[in-house]
Amino acid sequence: MDRQTTMITLEPALTRAHELAVEFLRTLPDRPVGAISALADVRARFGGRLPDHGDDAVTVIETLATAAEGGLTASAGPRYFGFVIGGSLPATLAADWLTSAWDQNAAMYVMSPAAAVAEDVAGEWLVDLFGLPAGTSVGFTTGATMATFTGLAAGRHAMLAKAGWDVERQGLFGAPDLPVVVGQDAHATVSAALQMLGLGRDRVVRVPSDDQGRMLAPALSDALGGLDRPALVVAQAGNVNSGSFDPFEPIVAAVRSNGGWLHVDGAFGLWAAADPSRREMLHGVGGADSWTTDTHKYLNVPYDAGLAFVADPAAHRAAMSMSAAYYVLGTGTQRDSFDYVPDSSRRARGFTIWAALRSLGRAGLAELVSGACDRATRFAGGLADVPGASILNDVVLNQVLVRFDDRSGEPAAGDRRTNAIISAIRDDGTLWPGSTDWRGRRAMKISVSGWSTTDEDVDRSLAAIDRIARAI
């Protein structure tokens, strides 16, 4: 296909995709928040026998949009509260379209100097914003799971190197024991990272937490004191259920006394650093060794966009770097992104993150974070008037846990009523809440992180919750 034919084919497809995208975005304020098609229907629209001959690009795009419609959630909209998922800021969505059009492989500087520099600059901005040590290295990963994998891999390298073991070269067979210590409420992605790193999910030492999910620092000190070697420790900034923060200052002190490595899972809580009124909850977090966060949460960039920060760039690169005879390697003054992430061929994730930060600035980002947290508080206040509702957590960030007890007061009956209300709310379509178990009780979870959520959206959601709860 020659260039002229390519453009004749490409431009109509891009134009039609733009039209369909705008049509979808215009429906977000009022469309049902959950998917409305059954699995069989979605499969029928997408499925069938692969045709012998392909369709033209415009037809494919139109068919895709039709097939997907009933299976799409309005997670990019203002009343999706099921998980900590932001939408896409206008600048980030537009930057993402450009990223696809540019089609850059961001593995090495020589492949795309612009992609490398965008990551470098955005990373420096974020290190400063989060108050992390100067010189901290940054890896742009697919999400929090691989960011945690990266941070813990750097820690594994550093801890075993101290013991005289080169884990990247020698592997784990015969390696010195590396204790791993996590909080009772560590996120599932921490376990996933540990299993991929060969450190195991079940061999970890679990430190008890308080009623809000905060790791008990004295218990951590006791656990570390009972070990005969340095440990890999994972703390948490933003419990996925309660939003609570571990007490970082005493945790850092305990890990330093042990000679270990501290990783902080801050998938969404690390963004509290951008809000002056909530920054204190992160006091001491800069004393850790590595950190995880996501930008598709508070920063509201499109998927995928995780971040791994490591205070020791040498350990970071040692854990991640790869080489091949045909690679054109950097000189040390330019950024080769594959030195900091597990993958080689990869999307140029830095463009959208740079665009988000540039479009918001410090003031806009502070307002974005504080607005989400304030609306979570508004939710909690409004839910107090709903029959049988009780808030199970201290609302310190953007998470609200609410339970709907039965008049009998029996726990099992409360679980059943809570489940029934969650299901009915999702079917209603006004909002889409999450669900969870918290301290042995079933709860509805509301996570506020979308840039387009307003007070009016909260009030509209509260009215729907109240109406449904009164009927059940």
Strand neighbour order, sheet with most strands: 2-8-7-6-5-3-4
- In one word, what is the shape? globular
* Rg on CA atoms, Å: 24 Å
- First and last CA, distance: 62 Å
The major β-sheet equals:
7 strands, mixed
Low-confidence stretches: none
Task: Reconstruct the topology from this structure.
Layout: H1 3-27, H2 39-46, H3 57-68, E1 80-81, H4 90-102, H5 113-130, E2 137-141, H6 144-162, H7 167-170, E3 180-183, H8 188-196, E4 205-207, H9 217-225, E5 232-236, H10 248-258, E6 261-265, E7 290-294, E8 306-310, H11 313-320, H12 350-383, E9 389-391, E10 399-404, H13 411-428, E11 432-438, E12 441-447, H14 455-471
Parallel strand pairs: 1-11, 3-4, 3-5, 5-6, 6-7
Antiparallel strand pairs: 2-8, 7-8, 9-10, 10-12, 11-12
Helix pairs in contact: 1-3, 4-12, 5-12, 6-8, 6-11, 9-10, 12-14, 13-14
